[in-house]
Amino acid sequence: MHALVIGGGVAGPATAVALRSIGVDVTVCEARPAEDKDAGLWVMVAPNGLAALDVLGLEETVLRESLAGAVGPSGFAPMRRAGLYRLLREAAAARGARIEHDRKLIAAETTADGVVARFADGSALAGDLLVGCDGIHSRTRSIIDPAAPTARYVPLLNLGGFASGVEAPGEAAQLQFVRSPKGFFGYAGSGAGEVWWFANLPWGAEPSRAELAAMDRAWLTERLLDTFAEAPGYVADVIRATYTDLYALPTHDLGGVPTWSRDDMVILGDAAHATTPTSGQGSSMAIEDAVVLAKCLRDLPRRQALARYEELRRERVEGIVALGARASAAKLNDAAPDGGLDWVLDYRIDWAARV
Ligand SMILES: Cc1cc2nc3c(=O)[nH]c(=O)nc-3n(C[C@H](O)[C@H](O)[C@H](O)COP(=O)(O)OP(=O)(O)OC[C@H]3O[C@@H](n4cnc5c(N)ncnc54)[C@H](O)[C@@H]3O)c2cc1C
C-alpha cells in the first residue's frame, strides 16, 4: 500500500512513522518550504502523547529536545513547535518515508485503483490511501465533505515567546500559571535563565489578517505590560526579555466534523478535531490518532480500517474538544477549569492488541 500523507506538522510525520512500522510505503506532502522560518511557538506534549510517541519508539528522541531535556514534574514536556515538527519529520525520513515540501494539496479524487492528489504547482501524485493531516483549516476535510464545518473562533488572542537571561519561580519544565484581572499568563522555565511563555487576552471579534499584521512588537509589548501590570514583577521581566516574535494568533477550535473518511481518504489530527490550546492536548491527540489509524490498517481491510479508526477515536477526541472549550471559557469568566483529568492523561494504546 502507498499512503499519501498530506501535511508535515505533528499528525503527518507521526502517521508516516506509524504506517512505516506496518510496512506501508509513505509520501508526506507538506505545503510549506523545507526552510520554514515561521514554525511558531511551543507546545506541551502531555503524558498520553508521550506514551503514544513511545509506541512509535520516539519518546526518548523527542525528550532530548524538550525544555531542560526532560518532562516536568507533572509529566508534560514543553517542546518548541519547530523542534517537534523537525524531529518527527526526521524520524519519518529515517524509517523510509519520503518528505516532499512545497506540495500544497488543492484537490483529490478517488479512482478505481485508489486516490489521485493534485497540488497547487500543477503536479499530481497517485496512491492507495490519502491521509489528511493538514491542520485545522484542512483542505482534505472539505474534499471528503464539501459541507464539512470550519473552525470556530474562540474570543481569546494567543501570544507568546521565548525569553532568556531571566528567572521566574517554579521547577524546571513545569507549566506555571498567573491569572491577572485582564489576562492569563503561562510559562515554563529551564531553571537556567530560559523561560518559554504564552498569554491569553480576551479579544471580542476575530482579528483579520491585516489587523494581526498591524499588531507590531512594540504595540503588543505595551499591551501585554498593561494587561499584566498587577501581576508579579517577573511577568513583565519575562515579557521584556523575549528575544523572538510575539506570535499573535486568534484562538480556534473545531468539533463535530460529521465525516472523517470517504472512499480511500481520511482525516486525522486538527483536520478532524481541534481543541483550544488551553487543553494542552492537540499534539497528543494527533499522535494518538496516528497510532490508532496504523493499528486499524494493520488488522483490517482498508475501508473497514478507516471506519474502525473513527469508532475508536471519536468519543475521546470530541470529549477533549469540549474540555478545551470549557477551559477557554473558564479563562474568560475567571472560573475554575475541569478537574479529574485522568481519563485524558492516563489513556494508553495497547499496540499488541488487535483492534
Ligand atoms: C497557540 C497554540 C498553542 C498550542 N499549544 C498546544 C500545547 O501546549 N499542547 C498541545 O498538545 N497542542 C497545542 N496546540 C495545538 C497543536 O499545535 C495542534 O493540535 C497540532 O499541531 C495538530 O497537529 P496537526 O499535524 O494536526 O496540524 P498542524 O500542526 O497544524 O500541521 C498541519 C500541517 O499541514 C500543512 N498543510 C496545511 N494545508 C496543507 C495543504 N493544503 N497541503 C499540504 N500541507 C498542508 C501545514 O503547513 C502544517 O505543516 C497549540 C496550538 C496553538 C495555535
UniProtKB/TrEMBL annotation:
Keywords (A to Z) from UniProt: Monooxygenase, Oxidoreductase
Residue ranges of every copy of the FAD-binding domain listed in the record: 84-321
InterPro entries, alphabetized: FAD-bd, FAD-dep_Monooxygenase_BioMet, FAD/NAD-bd_sf
Pfam family, one: FAD_binding_3
GO molecular function: FAD binding; monooxygenase activity
PANTHER family: MONOOXYGENASE (PTHR13789), PUTATIVE (AFU_ORTHOLOGUE AFUA_6G14510)-RELATED (PTHR13789:SF309)
The protein, known as: 2-polyprenyl-6-methoxyphenol hydroxylase
Organism: Actinacidiphila paucisporea
